[in-house]
Amino acid sequence: MAKTFYVTTPIYYPSGKLHIGNTYTTVLCDMLRRYKEMRGYDTYYLTGMDEHGKKIETVAEERNLPPSEHVDEIAEQTRALWDRMQISYDDFIRTTEKRHKTVVQKIFEQLLEQGDIYLGTYEGHYCMHCEAFFTESQLGEGATCPDCGRETSKLKEESYFLRLSKYEKQLLKFIEDNPDFITPESRRNEVLEFIRQGLNDLSVSRTTFDWGIKVISNPKHVVYVWIDALSNYLSALGYLTDDDSLYKKYWHGDEVVHVVGKDILRFHAIYWPIMLMALDVPITFRLHAHGFYMMKEGKMSKSKGGVIYPDTLMERYGLDELRYFLLRELPYGGDGVFTPETFVERINYDLANDFGNLLNRTVSMINKYFDGKVTAFSKEGTDYDASLRETCEQTIKEYTENIEELKVAEAIRSVWKLISRTNKYIDETTPWILGKDDSRRAELENVLYHLSESLRFIGVLLRPILLDASESLFRQLGIPQKLRGFDTLEFGTLDAVETVSKPSPLFPRLDVEEEVEKLQRIIRGDDAEESEESDEEKATIEDFVKLDVRVARVVDSKAHPNADKLLVLQVDIGGEQRQIVAGIAKHYDSKELIDKHVAVIANLEPVTLRGEKSEGMLLAGSNDDELEVLTLDGLNPGDKIQ
Ligand code: MSP
Predict the structure, then answer these.
(1) For the chain: N or C, fewer Cβ within 10 A?
(2) Which ranges constitute the DSSP H helices of 430-546?
(3) Domain range enclosing 233
(4) Measuring from atom 13 of ligand 1, which residue has the nearest CA?
(5) What is the pLDDT of residues 108-142, one digit of tens each?
(6) Atom 5 of ligand 1, nearest CA residue
């Protein structure tokens, strides 16, 4: 039976658009999955969305949407992004799904019954943004959050706690006994050091908001978002349900890998294993924490160092180019930097020159000298042949070892060493000179055969990384399907090569100056259409006509009882009174709009926002600082806007 491989990404917060930093993990896992598949494993790839918590509730509120609508929309966009990026996931779990919620509730109740979770009171500092409690000693200057630097507030509240302290020694021993459990080693050391300082029990419920999974036995509490989120790795497999066959097969299978960014290492290296120990579920996974993609100016973010999105790069340069850059440029154990210069250079030097040209020259020479067909293979051969063969074999070894250790950039580098060696082989064997001498045809054919065989190795090893280019290589050299597998990588397996009549370049060369400038503009946000809106669909007139936009008179208005940012308006839309909740309280005081004639969308499905019904949407213009409600005082309530 085939060995199993279960790989997971973190589940993403639906708080903003995913940039190349947070799509890195997804591409990495996709690559690992494709590699393992090629090695004959039975694989399962899980990704998804982490949709609960205060932060998400707030983002939805700012958009004037109920959280469920907000998360539905972002989940759909994220899936569409993965589809465009050809991410080969098997399951996309959302923490708002029933299948997940039920499992989290069962886990919580079980731990509660066992006494691993207990009810207590929390007194300390709370960071609203990180949804985390901190002790005095953990706080930054001015009682700020040690993680995000924002102000914290003092809080005393009832909370459930997970007994981390009870499992501290067991966890320490587990990590010490399993040196490969956390990689890279530097991260493992960080975790060990943290545990050795002693673990406080963890607050695992909240009563300050309710966009979360309710604790069944005490529904005024919702489960802490990290306990909720981490459980996805099991809930997606049907753990604690009637059909737990995936759980049995993959969690109890041969290899399980959680890939995460360094900022969420502690949750995965401490809370998650302790939850599993308490649940008596074996810790079968290994944990890999990678570094961050940064911009030259600092962190990747709209407000700090700038930001670059995968769509932008994919649409302008291609999916293979994006995958190659992401996987090649982030060093093992460290951070990587996205700069327009390195991005363009990697495409031109590595992909177009080194790799693309090698294929192009080989196909052209086979066409020129042998009408596209080459068969010979001389076992004796020259020293150059032997050296090339040896590099091919050595490359497989290096590549495999590196990937197994999750040193992906190094694995790619080892393929490029083979590419360089193969280019050098052309210089050494000088086929253009052999081609002038009829008596050396066998020698020439042997050289071209060696080049093709080496390219076949390169194509197979790059299959998990460059999806289109590897296919194109096989097609251009006429390599049959059955010789594209990892298990066929023995030099000399290829019987014959039959090339296409005209080679097509794998990667077009870019104009460095032009593209660097273009990318700089995109990062600065000058090229709005390319950076932000490139993936937004165009609306049609029909879409617009569907909206019933009307003039409405504001009859009354008051502050929302449960939300600072919202006003609750009563409006008259021509003989019919409606209630509309609008996110304008920061810009208008509650009575300011009374008697104004405003524009509202009148045919939206009613929603409830923080307990108040909203039967329409108010139109307003805004930028980062200002917001102005559209008024049409010269028109009458009920008049149509079109
Ligand atoms: N929802 C949690 C994960 C829960 S997993 C049980 C979360 N979500 S996130 O959307 O904020 O981040 C998702 C991943 O993106 C994390 O692994 C994070 O480390 C990663 N990255 C965010 N910015 C990144 C870069 N600039 N570069 C590389 N990875 C980055 O955390």
Answers:
(1) N
(2) 431-434, 441-462, 467-477, 512-524, 528-531, 541-545
(3) 4-290
(4) 12
(5) 999 999 999 999 998 889 887 777 888 888 888 88
(6) 10
